TrEMBL record:
It comes from the Eukaryota. Residues 582-612, 651-670 are annotated as: Disordered. The keyword Nucleotide-binding applies. This is Kinesin-like protein.
């Protein structure tokens, strides 16, 4: 904005300015100018207000840097009565600064709002982007870990590195030659030049020559160390002859740090890198196995150090040393301090082979606890860093006294280590871990599901050739061990929780399996029941159909029978005229035995007229018949057929002593007309058919009777039960004029699986006037000798299964009921047949 444009702006009151659009525009111009070009001095430094304002976009945009100060300055200027430091505005007469600043303030507030909104938006975007990246990073880390461990496993969970120290000055001075040869191209092989100049080749996972420095050695060790950080149990140990550099490799010197220090350094640095995802905690213990005793190297005083420590197996299977000092470490300096302290307490002594020879196995245990912040997974693993005592021949190092004893213990424990290695290599089911304190301590980190790295330390000197060969042979055996895949170690508390959950899950699965099995069995049962039900339904339908047919047939036969009866009756009436005159009824009834058709009992006198019972006493000879429950003579039980008792006077037979085979009032066949005979035959056929139908009925009822009880039996309720059907037919039969009603206690009941048809006890007492009196007497004239009594016994047709006998029953009413007589099989058929003949006879009568 050119300077001249502002000149001439006249001072106006605030109200005027507010109301006048021109004035507002002018003030806006001033404000914009202040922001665009204004340069105000505050505390000696320039406060700049920049804007990218353009004609198209009058809204000031861009950074807000300096604006609060500018505004503050302007407001201050206002309060100080318009002291404007701007050289441009100085020239303006009296601009309405208040209005200008108000506008400026409004714009500023708007800008601040926009700024805040934009910032929040950016924050949100950044946040989500950050979360995505974090997730990706976590996934990548896990993938890296997985691949890395796979690589380690492919290389083998027991790895053997060989390290050869340089010839020392003493050896050189003595003129010992170098017997170990390395090929710079083959990093995994070395050759031993034997005494006979032959070469023996050894192969390991990595071979380090005398020139290899600590960094190079640790670079190959690093993957195993990282596995410990990932939650695997790790054991790194150095084995070899005295003075070959075991302590040098594991501990190192302040100038050349060894594996222990470097490993912990890496643990700290890597844990720091992973701190956003995983929280780590480290603790260090240091102990030695000296003369088969465990000594805590971090104990504060000698008393503690002298305390006997034992190895115990914890509930989660790991081996712990209760009472062992475990120092939490947070920095590498703390670790170094601890290692230095422990190293000081270590048992060392001078031998001919090494001035500061380690007389014990030194073990540093690093416990690594981790918690994954993303997944919440916890782990707890151990890393053992072991510097073994020197494996040397006692004779060679020329020791005696205490040193000799130490050497014996050292050799014993190394021998135990060799045995463990051999057992692992040969996959022996029993691994002798407990043969020494050393192997017992390392049990959870030797073999099994951990990662093991062994440094076999050798001397290049020709003087140590034998020891070197022994060490290399031992290392070769170790390398031959095939271990299964390593397993990640979880936190014991977490393990316990997981174990509980697993157990619960196992029980639930078991219960589930049981329920499923039950369900399956029930389903099978249900299916089979369904099949049975369907079969039964079909049977019921068939039976119903058969019953309907039977009923129909019964009706037909009844009709036919009635017609036949009528015909027979007519014939009988016609033939009466040619019948001979019957004898008048005798005053005294002849003895029953004379008129029955039963054979006289053997060895028993026949009842005489004097022993017979008179009609006035008992017309049916009840004492004789009812003397046993089956209506049989107790002295003649062999006779079981129903008998027909007729009390009609004998026709033409006056001699009561002559037994009659058959007593009938019917005419002899010769006297009867052929029509009657035909009718009788016809009648007999019909009776036979009727009998067959009764059999059919029995079968149909038997079908019902065999219906087993099923859970679906309720479905029968709406159907006709066999009893109902049987009852229906029975009632139909009974309603017929031919049959008398059943006694109430003889109603057949529904008996499952008992194919029994119990016919209604039928007792019919018919009073038939004798032909002589038929014309003159009334049939209802009472039971006199003029009437013939026909007693039909109740006949039960039962299955061959013997039923318990029933007590004889006496019916009320005109007739006398002799109790049921049970028959089965052919006997029943005969009875039915006899009954049919009797009926026929009665009808003829
Ligand atoms: N690779 C090496 N480079 C340089 N010097 C070494 C190397 N290895 C071992 N030495 C030196 O050899 C000497 C003996 O080493 P060290 O004490 O580590 O042997 P050692 O196997 O631990 O013996 P001991 O079993 O008796 O404890 C030390 O002075 C050490 O500095």
């Amino acid at each position: 904005m050119p300077e001249g444009d502002l000149v001439g702006i006249t001072a106006q009151s605030e109200q005027e300015c507010e109301s006048s659009p021109n004035c507002k525009d002018q003030n806006l111009q001033i404000a914009q100018y202040i922001l665009l070009e204004g340069s105000f001095t505050e505390n000696g430094s320039d406060v700049e207000a920049r804007t990218t304002d353009t004609a198209d976009n009058p809204e000031p945009a861009g950074t807000m840097e300096g604006r609060p100060e500018t505004l503050g300055y302007l407001i201050q200027a206002l309060d100080d009565d318009c002291i404007i430091g701007s050289p441009v505005l100085k020239g303006v007469a009296t601009p309405n600064l208040r209005a200008s600043i108000n506008l400026l303030g409004t714009k500023y507030n708007n800008l601040i709002e926009r700024y805040k909104t934009e910032t929040n938006k950016c924050k949100d975007e950044r946040g989500s982007r950050y979360e995505t990246l974090k997730k990706q990073y976590t996934n990548e880390c896990q993938e890296r870990k997985r691949l890395y461990n796979e690589l380690i496993e492919l290389r083998g969970n027991i790895r053997v590195f060989c390290r050869c120290r340089p010839l020392n000055s003493d050896e050189i001075s003595k003129g010992y030659s170098n017997v170990v040869e390395f090929d710079s191209l083959l990093e995994t092989e070395l050759q031993i030049i034997c005494n006979d100049s032959s070469r023996k080749q050894f192969k390991f996972d990595q071979v380090f020559g005398p020139s290899a420095n600590q960094e190079a050695v640790f670079a190959e060790t690093l993957p195993v160390v990282m596995s410990a950080l990932d939650g695997y149990n790790v054991c790194i140990f150095a084995y070899g002859q005295t003075g070959t550099g075991k302590t040098f490799t594991m501990e190192g010197t302040p100038e050349n740090r060894g594996v222990n220090y470097r490993a912990l350094e890496v643990l700290f640095s890597s844990s720091a890198k992973r701190s956003s995802n995983v929280a780590y905690g480290f603790s260090v213990s240091m102990l030695e196995v000296y003369n088969e005793r465990i000594r805590d190297l971090l104990a504060e005083n000698n008393d503690q150090m002298a305390k006997k420590l034992e190895i115990k197996q914890s509930s989660d299977g790991t081996h712990e040393v209760p009472g062992l000092v475990e120092s939490d470490v947070h920095t590498i300096d703390e670790v170094w301090e601890i290692l230095r302290t422990g190293g000081k307490n270590r048992s060392v002594g001078s031998t001919s082979a090494n001035e500061l020879s380690s007389r014990s196995h030194c073990l540093v245990r690093v416990t690594i606890k981790s918690k994954n912040l993303v997944s919440g997974q916890r782990s707890r693993s151990h890393m053992w860093l072991v510097d073994l005592a020197g494996s040397e021949r006692v004779s060679k190092i020329d020791v005696e006294g205490e040193r000799l004893r130490e050497s014996q213990f050292i050799n014993k424990s190394l021998s135990a280590l060799g045995d463990v290695i051999s057992a692992l290599a040969s996959k022996n089911p029993h691994i002798p871990y407990r043969n020494s304190k050393l192997t017992h301590l390392l049990q959870s980190s030797l073999g099994g599901d951990c990662k093991t790295l062994m440094f076999v330390q050798i001397s290049p000197s020709s003087a140590d050739l034998g020891e070197t060969t022994c060490s290399l042979n031992f290392a070769t055996r170790v390398r031959g061990i095939e271990q299964g895949p390593a397993r990640k170690q979880t936190d014991p508390a977490e393990s316990f929780k997981l174990k509980q959950m697993t157990e619960k899950l196992r029980l639930e699965e078991k219960e589930n399996a049981r329920l499923n099995e039950n369900l399956r069995l029930l389903n099978m049962k249900y299916t089979s029941r369904e099949n049975v039900f369907q079969t039964l339904q079909e049977k019921v339908k068939e039976a119903e159909q058969a019953s309907r047919n039977y009923l129909q047939r019964v009706r037909e036969l009844e009709n036919q029978l009635a017609a036949e009866k009528r015909v027979v009756k007519d014939n009988t009436t016609t033939s009466q005229f040619i019948k001979p005159q019957l004898m008048p009824p005798q005053k005294q009834r002849p003895p029953l035995a004379r008129i029955t058709n039963r054979a006289p009992p053997i060895g028993r006198p026949r009842p005489t007229a004097t022993t017979s019972v008179t009609l006035s006493q008992n017309k049916e000879n009840i004492p004789l018949v009812a003397s046993n429950s089956f209506g049989l003579n107790p002295h003649n039980r062999g006779i079981s057929k129903a008998r027909r008792v007729s009390v009609a006077p004998l026709l033409g037979h006056n001699n009561p002593s002559q037994a009659k085979r058959r007593t009938s009032l019917a005419m002899p066949p010769s006297m009867r007309d052929p029509q009657t005979i035909m009718a009788e035959r016809k009648f007999s056929q019909l009776e036979q058919q009727f009998s067959q139908l009764q059999n059919l009925k029995r079968r149909s009822v038997a079908v019902f009777n065999t219906v087993p009880a099923t859970p679906l039996a309720g479905t029968y309720s709406s159907r006709k039960t066999p009893d109902a059907i049987g009852g229906k037919y029975r009632s139909l039969l009974m309603s017929s004029s031919k049959y008398a009603p059943s006694p109430p206690n003889a109603v057949s009941t529904w008996r499952a699986r008992l194919p029994t048809v119990v016919g209604s006890p039928r007792q019919r007492v018919r009073l038939v006037p004798s032909p002589a009196n038929r014309s003159g007497s009334t049939p209802e004239g009472g039971m006199s000798s003029k009437y013939c009594f026909s007693v039909q016994k109740r006949v039960q047709i039962a299955s061959p299964i013997q039923q318990p006998p029933r007590a004889p029953q006496v019916l009320t009413g005109a007739g006398v009921y002799n109790g049921p007589t049970r028959f089965a099989g052919n006997q029943a058929k005969r009875v039915l047949c006899n009954n049919a003949i009797a009926k026929r006879r009665m009808s003829v009568l």
